[in-house]
Specification:
The complex is a heterodimer of chains A (about 190) and B (about 80). Chain A is mostly helical. Chain A has helices at about 10-20, 20-45, 45-65, 75-90, 105, 125-140, 140-155, 160-165, 170-190. Chain A is elongated and about 60 Å long. Helices cover about 60% and strands about 0% of the residues of chain B. The chains are: A mainly alpha (about 190), B mainly alpha (about 80).
Chain lengths: ~190, ~80
């Protein structure tokens, strides 16, 4: 098995990979494949497309490894490639949704508030719940979905998220606000008691 | 938010803006006070918080076959046993 347990930094592995070390490259891939696959799934909501996106992401990484400046983290760079690839894929499949959720005021549903019948801890064992989550996120336009996943789910900072999707901090906050409200409403329709 | 009263819709909107951020700042005092005394807004807060947690906990694992296919696509499959 490719050993990724020692303390070699990403920068060292990148340097060695640029110099031709396939082992260093394999270590980088091994280190980030799960993160890339999981994030690709969170955006694409389809395991086949997530795997394809993961493969394309690492192919892109290998092609342009010598352009990696080290100014940002490798993980941030990989998130950027995945986000762009998923966006292109969605556009090519004509599933791209140009909805912009403009009506921010209308997204806050103060009349329909209820306790939910499932807690987040139940997600691993409940395929019906996973279906509800998939259906809700698929209704969320792609640009909002990426911001929500990067900031809230992956835990990146607002600035890092903005750098990846090429948006200002206020624009990221605005999209995040709308994405949270939209998803909460969608889930509330099904999970509200 | 200054010292004026806030309504539920404003509080809910603020929750969507600032969840996970510092609610102790002076401008948020009214929001926090309202939240502590309004069961409806607390439920709204919980539902937004749960929304994020649901998606955080919904993960998929790359299986061995997917890992092997990736290495093969990248021309690195001969290194996997090293």
């Amino acid at each position: 098995m490719i050993d990724t347990s020692n303390n070699i930094t990403d920068e060292q592995l990148i340097e060695e990979a640029i110099e031709g070390s396939k082992l260093a490259l394999a270590k980088l891939v091994k280190k980030y494949e799960q993160t890339v696959y999981n994030f690709a799934f969170k955006i694409c909501r389809n395991k086949e497309r997530a795997e394809h996106t993961m493969q394309e992401t690492f192919l892109s990484m290998i092609k342009s490894l010598n352009q990696f400046s080290g100014k940002s983290k490798l993980s941030t760079w990989l998130y950027t490639i995945v986000s762009n690839h998923c966006l292109m894929l969605a556009r090519s499949q004509k599933k791209y949704d140009y909805t912009t959720l403009e009506n921010e005021e209308g997204l806050i549903d103060d009349k329909n508030v209820a306790d939910w019948k499932f807690s987040p801890e139940k997600i691993a064992e409940n395929s019906e719940l996973k279906k509800v989550l998939d259906e809700a996120i698929e209704k969320l336009p792609h640009e909002y979905r990426v911001v929500f996943m990067l900031r809230d789910v992956e835990g990146l900072s607002t600035q890092e998220t903005g750098d990846i999707v090429n948006l200002s901090v206020p624009a990221v906050k605005s999209r995040l606000h709308r994405a949270r409200a939209f998803l909460r409403n969608e889930l509330n329709n099904t999970l509200g008691k | 938010m200054k010292n004026s009263k806030v309504n539920c819709k404003e509080v809910m909107s603020h929750i969507c803006d600032s969840l996970g951020e510092d609610l102790d700042s002076p401008k948020c005092v009214n929001i926090k006070d309202h939240l502590e005394s309004c069961p409806n807004c607390q439920k709204y807060f919980d539902s937004v918080d749960s929304t994020i947690k649901f998606y955080k906990k919904y993960n998929v694992e790359l299986n061995d076959e997917g890992h092997q296919r990736l290495l093969s696509v990248l021309g690195l499959d001969d290194l996997d046993e090293k």
